[in-house]
Predict the structure.
Amino acid sequence: MLDIIYVILPIFGLMGLGYFAVLKRLYPAEGVKSLIAFVNNFATPCLLFHSISTSDFRSAFNLSIIGPFYFGAIACFIVGIIIAQRVFGNRPGESVAVGFSGTFTNTVLVGLPILTRAYGSDALPVTLSIIGLHGAILLTVGMITMELVKRDGQPLGKTLVVAIRRVVSNPLIWGIAAGIIGSLLEIQLIEPAEAFFVMMSQAVVPAALFGIGGALVEFKLSENWKQALVASLIKLVLHPAIAYVLMVWLLHVPLEIARYGILLSAMPAGVNIYVFATYYDRGVSVATNTILIATVLSAVTITGWLYILSL
């Protein structure tokens, strides 16, 4: 158990540093978005390219891990919608936003640092194979569902075009695509290029954790905290539980490999749930509260999942 605490402490220590630095104005609040933009648009694409291009990506693309991860995510999406409607009495559009809040994982800013810290570079190929599909699958499902249920919904074809544009314009997808091409062609980087990508990759963990910690200062608890708590528990407990049952009990994936997908599914909600909510102007307060609550609670739940996965 002490080993697990040692894994978690520096991760949440960096997040705490970012939070208090912004809270006490030791780091400018306006600089947080720029820092996260650097991580998402530059450092992480370099990490994705370098990790995928230097690994056997084809063997890492394991449907026995990817399938349960996304089955669990979509199941959580449906459960969240049903609870939002029947328990909290939300309208269809708000219910979809709440469901999405319990679905979309913070794979980059929190997932990558924790998986790397817990399991080392061996976890990267499988983790990146999941991240490569994450936005494409879940944003498309979320946007189509929202357009189908809200009264002023757009035609399905237009929604698909918007979803595809959002996915294709994502620099993370560019890094993944370039990495796959590099892996298939077995491209060997010259030393200066190799050093460049290594240094950019090393910037991801501290910058991402400091940035997400600083971003939490922006989010405040509101009257919708109960819905946000439910969405957080769906994300932190139900999603990894479904992934665990499917991978380990049903598909009999060896735990030393399945744990990568299970732990990634246990990460808190990503900032894209806020982007989704503000884009449709539905469930914005629930989304902001979910980011705050899920990130704080994840210090406990991730520790618990690390313990379960070490048995």
Observations:
- The chain has one domain: 2-310.
- Residues 284-310 form the longest helix (27 residues).
